[in-house]
Amino acid sequence: MTTKAINDYKNLKEFGENLSHEISTPLAVANGKLDLLLQETNLPENQISLVVTAQKAIQKLSKIQRAISLLTKIENAEFANVKPLNISSVIEKMVIEFIELAELKEIEVKTDIEPDVLINMDSTLAEILFSNLLQNAVKHNIPNGNIRIELNQKNFSIANTGIKPVESPEKYFFRFKKNNQSSESLGLGLSIVKKICDISGFDVNYNFFQQEKEHKITIQFQKP
């Protein structure tokens, strides 16, 4: 029975990997064909609108495919290059990349980053983790809002202003769970964050503070 369970797991894992790989090509082809169709100068407006709608749907499918593929790779422990990593440097570089996007929405970014915080984790997962958190803080913020980022030897936290969640914040760690079901968000960003934290041995918590109208995610690092 153990051998059968192992074989079933391997077959399921291989099926998922093959499915993800095979889906990406036809999606790219379909999107390319729609691009060519949009370049036609004699299309009536109603047909252009239909093409654009179809293209958006394909692009969303592509994003879902990439996110599911990433989650599968994380679950299969394909990111195993764990070593001491200067998290302070990683976060500082990412803040610089996201600050311009935040300024476009007139969002104020404040940081309190302790220098040379070393954490044992895969560098690729670190970039994915903090990139998702920064992206969420900007995307789900409000005009003239703010973002606060803090890092020390024990934990990392990122807080942003935003609308009140319709459900308990912890539920947004589940796949395809999002505050606004009609939004273009996939509802996979926080599930990726949770999976990376689990793999890395971190505790992650999500809270909403009504008085400040502030969402806050805190990651507690593993003890040395």
Please estimate the helix content.
Answer: 40-55%
Q: Which stretches are low in confidence, meaning pLDDT under 50 for 5 or more residues running?
A: 175-186
Order of helix and strand elements from N to C terminus? HHEHEEHEEHEE
Give the beta-strand count: 7
Euclidean distance between termini CA atoms: 38 Å
Question: How would you concisely characterize the structure shown here?
Answer:
With 224 residues, the protein is an alpha+beta fold. It has helices spanning 2-38, 45-75, 87-104, 123-139, 189-200, and strands at residues 82-86, 108-113, 118-122, 146-151, 155-161, 203-209, 214-220.
Question: Can you offer a commentary on this structure?
Answer:
The chain is an alpha+beta fold and 224 residues long. Helix content is 51%, strand content 19%. The protein contains 5 helices and 7 strands. The chain has helices at 2-38, 45-75, 87-104, 123-139, 189-200; strands at 82-86, 108-113, 118-122, 146-151, 155-161, 203-209, 214-220. A 5-stranded mixed beta sheet has the order 2-4-5-7-6. The chain has a two-stranded antiparallel ribbon with strand order 1-3. Helix 3 runs parallel beside helix 4 and helix 4 packs antiparallel against helix 5. The chain is globular, with a radius of gyration of 20 Å. The two termini are 38 Å apart.
